[in-house]
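Q: What would this chain look like folded?
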Amino acid sequence: MIVLLFLNAFASLISIISSILVLFYPQWMSKSQEVSTGERFFTQMYAARAVPFGLIVAIVPFITNIDNTVVKIVLSTAMTIQIIDVIIGFKRKEIPMIIGPSIAATIHGLTAWYI
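A: My prediction, written as structure tokens:
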């Protein structure tokens, strides 16, 4: 079980880091040659949500005095978000956007199941 908690935190950390990186390199997300102000705005909005939620997903499972139902809801939400990212990855035909979120969704789901 402890291994899943750390894998979950690691998956969240990767998500946090990637959302911060696209703040500086928005073309990584959009694949644009020239980044527009709209793309910069989108990456800022993305990071504004991804960083705090990623921290919650990483930390909440370690807090022992929280009801497991709350932890399961947080992890299930994270899993759902990652599944949606996989669907977007399929539509865009981007293998990294399929593989990474698939792994993260599996980790979040397994952690929610076994917590």
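The CA atoms of residues 22 and 28 lie 6 Å apart.
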